[in-house]
């Protein structure tokens, strides 16, 4: 029988006095909604019970039985896009004990009424593990009883129609009582509802239906007197209808809705429209929480960053270089190798497999990239060959060694992913995009603003060219264009592009031309007057939402980049063109490095000097451009100045990357008055001109 407390609530004759203590909700997020018609939603004090709601139209929609036609979602809902769809079997999932801290934070967010936002955007590069995370989270929320719906987009599998998204979500929500009955009322009043525009469908099938659902769904009430759930029969005053229901003592926890792979939805316009619709919903109601996963496409980033600024959205990036991701991938690989070793114990024997050096190589190549790791494990576990032979093919693929005839490519799945991204490039900018990717591969990471000045290209041109490539290269948001460099999410993409057997028409195997361009630009910066070069820098300040950077600060970034990296870029060019050597490398006045000597890395500069010596020694006019023995009286002065504290740099000894010795090494570079004395010590490079050493 009902407890005295519940009976008293049922006998309430009107809304409680909200001015009394306890009369108002203690949680500002708690909102009870009741429909006063088809279109409007009004607030109702949270203490009003089910007996008070019985006269409301909203309660009619939930509990007056109306049959939902079996074909109402036929042709509209993507039934193969759900959490446990056979079309997605087996779905990707987070490996045991991976993404633990992130999953815990998201579950806490979904179950904590004190959350600050009602929408979560999980962004990450292609293959970062977004779908696996979404699947695992959705299953956890389902276990908690608060999963509303989950839609997994896939362009290649035709799960990408924007006009079927709302129907798909509504179809899944209909499995929760009494949502189907609510939808049936809407469809009865408007039989063409499923044919109407997305905004109208979203309003009725998502916003209004879930609002009504949240205040009328039966809730099990724990009776403190009897220690059990209490079911109560109440009567609707007029007309007389007896309904078995339960007391509504407060709001229900919001349901969680997943949209995984929103960037796979057909039409960027539709993607942004859904974000706008969801933002409108979370501004008004508490009934749903949204978790949206996608690649960081620029139009999506703009939309979600705007929502984040309004306090509507929590943004979480799945970074491949995150320590947790690195550790998780290593754990996954270790567990999977142990599983495969047990499975094929008869073939592999008792020896430790794989060998530690091979395991470390695979962990290093994976470098936090879940798709890379899972692709290799999937290949390794194929039944048509032995794990040993499969492992050999994997190592060859990682090392870039051509595979034997008849051996399938272990990285084929990843290659297809990259080909899919590149095939989406607009043909009008495809060549420019590939050239820009090649330039990014030819030099160390550089901020967009600095790169634009180095290449004498407008910032907007670079950003527009990379517009469709945000899933493989990290392009900073506007306020970070000055400091945050462009970077490839994973080395597997650059390996893919430089291997013509894998990338085909997109191959960028020869990076020499792009290196020439970068080197020439760097030497130009190093040779320029700070003031004159800085004054000549021009960019569109409207691209920067933060404070517009000063010309001098940009020049300083360029100067530091050039002094730090140009030497290594030079050494990557084999058999350089004679004209390039004469005009660019040997044409530079190395005395100018004095002002940036602290930025010049000793190891790389030693290797550069040895490279420069090797490419000039056989050119008659430049055969002594780099030297350690005196060729003139001027040279004698230099050597006399430094010989007592240093030794000559050995130009014929192949540089193997060892640390520079503690003993300073010297070399002379240049001719005549432009000769520079180079002293290399472990932590810096010192540059002297003849004017500085004087007549010793």
Give the strand content.
5-15%
Q: Which structural category do the helix and sheet elements fall into?
A: alpha/beta
Q: Low-confidence runs (pLDDT<50, min 5 residues)? A: 1-59, 217-250
Mean pLDDT equals: 82
Radius of gyration from the CA trace?
Answer: 34 Å
End-to-end separation in angstroms reads: 110 Å
The residue fraction in helices comes out at: 40-55%
The gross shape turns out to be elongated
Strand order of the largest sheet: 4-9-10-3-11
Q: Kindly state the number of beta strands.
A: 18
Q: Main β-sheet, in a few words? A: 5 strands, parallel
Enumerate how many helices there are, as a single number: 28
Quaternary class: single chain
């Amino acid at each position: 029988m009902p407890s005295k407390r519940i009976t008293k609530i049922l006998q309430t004759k009107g809304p409680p006095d909200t001015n009394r203590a306890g009369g108002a909700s203690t949680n500002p997020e708690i909102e009870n909604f009741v429909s006063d018609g088809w279109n409007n939603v009004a607030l109702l004090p949270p203490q009003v019970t089910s007996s008070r709601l019985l006269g409301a139209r909203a309660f009619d929609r939930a509990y007056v039985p109306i049959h939902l036609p079996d074909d109402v979602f036929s042709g509209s809902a993507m039934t193969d896009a759900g959490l446990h769809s056979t079309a997605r079997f087996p779905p990707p999932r987070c490996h045991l004990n991976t993404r633990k801290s992130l999953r815990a934070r998201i579950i806490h967010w979904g179950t904590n009424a004190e959350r600050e936002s009602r929408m979560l955007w999980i962004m990450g590069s292609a293959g970062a593990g977004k779908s696996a995370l979404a699947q695992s989270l959705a299953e956890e929320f389902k276990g908690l009883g608060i999963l509303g719906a989950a839609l997994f987009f896939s362009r290649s599998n035709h799960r990408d129609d924007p006009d079927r998204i709302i129907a798909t979500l509504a179809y899944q929500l209909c499995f929760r009582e009494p949502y189907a009955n609510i939808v049936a009322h809407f469809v009865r009043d408007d039989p063409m509802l499923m044919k109407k525009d997305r905004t109208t469908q979203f309003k009725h099938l998502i916003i209004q239906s879930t609002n009504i659902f949240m205040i009328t769904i039966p809730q099990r009430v724990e009776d403190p007197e009897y220690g059990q759930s209490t079911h109560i029969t109440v009567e609707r005053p007029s007309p007389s209808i007896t309904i078995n229901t339960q007391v509504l003592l407060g709001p229900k926890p919001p349901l969680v809705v997943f949209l995984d792979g929103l960037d796979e939805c057909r039409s960027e316009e539709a993607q942004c429209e859904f974000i706008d619709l969801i933002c409108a919903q979370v501004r008004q109601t508490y009934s749903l929480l949204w978790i949206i996963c996608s690649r960081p496409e620029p139009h999506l980033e703009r939309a979600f960053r705007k929502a984040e600024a309004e306090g509507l959205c929590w943004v979480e990036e799945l970074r491949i270089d995150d320590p947790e991701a690195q550790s998780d991938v290593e754990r996954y690989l270790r567990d999977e190798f142990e599983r495969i070793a047990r499975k094929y114990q008869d073939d592999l024997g008792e020896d430790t497999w794989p060998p530690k050096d091979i395991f470390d190589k695979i962990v290093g190549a994976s470098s936090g990239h879940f798709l890379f790791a899972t692709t290799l494990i999937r290949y390794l576990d194929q039944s048509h060959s032995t794990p040993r032979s499969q492992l050999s093919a994997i190592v060859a693929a990682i090392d870039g060694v051509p595979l034997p005839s008849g051996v399938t490519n272990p990285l084929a799945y990843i290659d297809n992913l990259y080909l899919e991204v590149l095939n989406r490039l607009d043909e009008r900018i495809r060549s420019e995009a590939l050239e820009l990717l090649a330039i990014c591969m030819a030099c160390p990471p550089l901020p967009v603003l600095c790169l634009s000045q180095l290449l004498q290209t407008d910032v907007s041109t670079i950003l527009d060219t990379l517009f469709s490539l945000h899933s493989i290269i990290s392009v900073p948001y506007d306020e970070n264009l000055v400091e945050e460099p462009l970077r490839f999410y994973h080395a597997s993409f650059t390996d893919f592009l430089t291997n013509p057997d894998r990338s085909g028409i997109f191959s960028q195997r020869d990076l020499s031309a792009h290196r020439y361009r970068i080197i020439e630009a760097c030497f130009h910066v190093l040779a320029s007057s700070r003031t004159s070069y800085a004054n000549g820098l021009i960019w569109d300040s409207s691209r920067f939402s933060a404070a517009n950077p000063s010309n001098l600060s940009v020049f300083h970034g360029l100067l530091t980049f050039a002094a730090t990296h140009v030497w290594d870029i030079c050494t990557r060019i084999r058999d350089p063109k004679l004209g390039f050597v004469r005009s660019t490398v040997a044409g530079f006045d190395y005395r100018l490095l004095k002002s940036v000597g602290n930025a010049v890395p000793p190891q790389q500069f030693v290797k550069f000097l040895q490279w420069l010596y090797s490419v000039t020694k056989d050119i008659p006019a430049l055969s002594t451009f780099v030297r350690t023995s005196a060729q003139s009286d001027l040279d004698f002065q230099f050597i006399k100045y430094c010989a007592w504290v240093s030794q000559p740099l050995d130009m014929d000894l192949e540089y193997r990357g060892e640390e520079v010795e503690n003993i300073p090494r010297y070399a002379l570079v240049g001719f005549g008055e432009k000769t520079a004395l180079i002293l290399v010590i472990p932590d810096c490079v010192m540059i002297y001109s003849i004017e500085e050493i004087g007549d010793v």
